[in-house]
């Protein structure tokens, strides 16, 4: 059973690590946008993968303090991204390539959607019963 204070601290940590992952994602996306002629989807997908790896590593260690099996936790995260990635990649590509939306705006929207849904998924499914099991 977690207290309100513990949950608030967890949300703050997740937010800060997600901001750092967002910086990595936007930096990678910007570099690929400015330096290549790639269409939206490979730029977005490459940047997303880099940020997910960063975010998973930090949040497992410091936010959720989980001692659970890393491959199993990564598989659970992979299941999330098996759904999230095609939806946001295809949807984002449609918004940018077909409807002419700004690619940075679409990427920022996808990042915000990812932030909220991934926190809930990580909190209750990936690390739920394994939170705070890591030895100090």
Describe this structure in words.
The chain has 136 residues and is mainly α. The longest helix has 32 residues, at 4-35. The chain has helices at residues 4-35, 40-63, 70-98, 103-126. The relative contact order is 0.16. Helices cover 80% and strands 0% of the residues.
Secondary-structure map with pairings?
Elements: H1 4-35, H2 40-63, H3 70-98, H4 103-126
Helix pairs in contact: 1-2, 1-4, 2-3, 3-4
Task: Please tag this protein with its features.
4 helices; 136 residues; mainly alpha
Oligomer: single chain
N-to-C SSE string, H for helix and E for strand: HHHH
Q: Mean pLDDT score, rounded?
A: 93
Specify the overall morphology: elongated
Percentage of residues in DSSP E strands: under 5%
Q: How many strands appear in the DSSP assignment?
A: 0
Report the radius of gyration as a whole number of Å: 16 Å
* Helicity range: over 70%
Largest sheet: none
Number of helices: 4
Compute the separation of the termini in Å.
19 Å
Q: Spans of 5+ residues with little confidence (pLDDT < 50)?
A: none
Put the structure in a nutshell.
By secondary structure, this protein is an all-alpha fold.
